[in-house]
Specification:
The complex is a heterodimer of chains A (141) and B (373).
Chain A: H1 16-34, E1 38-41, H2 49-59, E2 65-69, E3 73-78, E4 84-90, E5 96-103, H3 114-130, H4 136-140
Antiparallel strand pairs in A: 1-5, 2-3, 3-4, 4-5
Helix pairs in contact in A: 1-2
Chain B: H1 4-7, H2 19-25, H3 30-43, H4 51-60, E1 64-70, H5 76-81, H6 93-96, E2 97-101, H7 110-123, E3 129-133, E4 136-137, E5 145-146, E6 149-150, H8 151-159, E7 164-168, H9 169-174, E8 187-188, E9 198-201, H10 208-221, H11 234-237, H12 241-244, H13 248-252, H14 263-266, H15 285-288, H16 329-346, H17 352-363, H18 366-372
Parallel strand pairs in B: 1-2, 1-3, 3-7, 7-9
Antiparallel strand pairs in B: 4-8, 5-6
Helix pairs in contact in B: 3-4, 4-10
The complex binds iron/sulfur cluster.
Chain lengths: 141, 373
């Protein structure tokens, strides 16, 4: 059996990017009007690689880009449309595990989570009480 | 396969702490939960906004005791779920469960292994999950035994106080290859032997995300996901391979490869005429793909074998087109669907009383029946 030349149609533009952009445009208007956030799961859509590139190019890159090291690398950036965020999570072997476009002020995953804040506050208190040499003022000076 | 982290979870005692509390101690942040939840929402075809609810559900859930029983199987299902060796978001599922018994992954052997199973059953009565790979030889109890117990006895004993049973792989879900004609061991799917809720995650092997996604759903929402008429989660088995196949435009235009090395095959045309079973096969291969999303059989140039459907081994030939009806292909496909509907319905009612009748009717060949008597 030969597979050498079997094309996967991954290079064809299907028009899906335009549909996704229209949906995002509606979500962005809703965010502007009444702060309702929305998102599009890119993995669930039959986008070809060419569609995906077209979509990424159309949205471009804005002022914020963040890399997270969190059980695999995650890349998050605000597109050149304020409030439209591209979120790409990677898992094993750098493969994309999920990918979405989120229309919101700040993606949830970028905000410090309340449980993490509580744990961090406790940890810092414990470290300060157990080791007096670690003192915030001392390190400033 | 099993790394130290996973092995350390074997024989884990039930903990009263929430997953959020337990994992925080090991440096797993809530942000990691959120990332896992985004991944889970995506594979479950839930809107991305469901991620927050999933993360919250997981953080407040208790670590789930899982007893994994392997019967007439090839270990392909275990290979599939443990395919990744590096710590990654997909592996977090192993932090959410306490794998209290698993032949291949556990350190303990012999009496110690069986003791671990009994202990997990005792300590988590009514709360533990039983995962089964492999079909169960009901034609003759001597065909497969573990620790001196027949597979039927071990399954019935373990499932009795389980919260639910997950049948992973086509063998556990529908009998699979051991049940292929003439079914020499009288192999039956697990749903024939229990009146507990059964979730079938078929495939030979199943897609790893279908297994981990289902377990994550059970933990996050404390309930069973929506199932199809064969008892399979709709999120993964709701659409035919054909519905999401990138070669579908060629099918619509009647452009078919006639052999694996002709011009059509080289051009990526539809594989229907070289035996693709995509139109009658329900699974998520075309969207989730395999090996962390690299490819799936049709993308690699081979038609779908239909491995997630009941009776796939007896479909009449992997390379015979569905429509020809040769070797009763269509009859088997339709028959499998009807049999599957009965299996799905069987999950809701007690089936023990009908088991004997069913087995006598058709499962074991005459020679085996005689031997059993
Ligand atoms: S290759 Fe198979 S699944 Fe894809 S369009 Fe053809 S028949 Fe359908």
């Amino acid at each position: 059996m030969t597979n050498a030349a079997a094309p996967c149609q991954t290079e064809n533009v299907t028009g899906m990017a335009r549909s996704v952009l229209s949906e995002i445009s509606g979500m962005l208007q809703a965010l502007a009007n009444n702060e309702t956030a929305g998102s599009v799961d890119l993995r669930s859509l039959p986008l070809t690689q060419a569609d995906r590139r077209q979509l990424e190019d159309a949205l471009g890159r804005g002022e914020v880009a963040v890399e997270l090291e969190l059980a695999g690398r995650s890349s998050i950036w605000e597109t050149r449309y304020a409030g439209v965020w591209w979120i790409r999570h990677r898992g094993a072997q750098e493969k994309v595990s999920s990918e979405e476009i989120s229309v919101c002020r700040v993606p949830d995953i970028l905000t410090s989570q309340p449980a993490d804040i509580t744990a961090a506050a406790l940890r810092l208190q414990q470290e300060l009480s157990q080791n007096p040499s670690i003192h915030p003022e001392a390190s400033d000076g | 396969m099993a790394d130290n982290n996973r092995n350390s979870q074997l024989h884990g005692k039930p903990v009263s702490r929430t997953l959020g509390e337990a994992l925080a101690e090991r440096g797993v942040s809530r942000r990691s939960f959120l990332k896992f939840a985004s991944y889970t929402a995506s594979i479950l075809a839930l809107p991305p906004t469901a991620a927050t609810a999933i993360a919250e559900g997981l953080a407040t859930a208790r670590r789930q005791s899982v007893i994994w029983l392997s019967f007439q199987e090839c270990t392909g299902c275990t290979e599939s779920i443990t395919r990744a060796s590096s710590p990654s978001i997909e592996d977090l599922i192993f932090d959410f469960i306490s794998l209290d018994y698993h032949h291949t992954l556990q350190n303990a052997a012999g009496d110690a292994a069986e003791h671990a199973r009994m202990q997990a059953m005792e300590e988590n009565k009514g709360e533990y999950l039983v995962v089964v790979d492999g079909s169960i030889p009901a034609g003759n109890n001597g065909y497969s035994t573990i620790a001196g117990m027949s597979n039927v006895e071990m399954f019935e004993e373990t499932a009795e106080h389980a919260k639910a049973v997950i049948a992973v792989g086509t063998c556990a879900a529908f009998g699979g290859i051991p049940a292929a004609r003439p079914n020499p061991t009288g192999a039956v799917p697990v749903s024939e032997l229990t009146d507990k809720p059964v979730i079938n995650i078929s495939g030979c092997p199943p897609i790893p995300e279908a297994m981990t996604g289902t377990i994550a759903y059970l933990l996050s929402f404390a309930g069973i996901p929506e199932l199809d008429h064969l008892g399979r989660p709709q999120a993964f088995f709701g659409e035919a391979i054909h519905d999401r196949c990138y070669r579908r435009p060629f099918y619509e235009k009647g452009m078919f490869a006639k052999s694996f090395d002709d011009q059509g095959a080289r051009q990526g045309w539809c594989l229907y005429e070289v035996g693709c079973k995509g139109p009658v096969t329900y699974n998520a291969c075309a969207t989730l793909k395999w090996n962390q999303g690299v490819s799936f059989p049709i993308q690699s140039g081979h038609g779908c074998l239909g491995c997630s459907e009941p009776g796939f081994w007896d479909f009449g030939g992997f390379y015979k087109p569905l429509a020809t009806g040769k070797d009763d292909t269509l009859k088997y496909a339709a028959g499998a669907a009807v049999a599957g509907a009965a299996i799905g319905a069987a999950s809701a009612v007690s089936v023990r009383s009908k088991r004997k009748k069913l087995l006598e009717a058709n499962a074991a060949p005459q020679a085996i029946k005689e031997e059993a008597e």
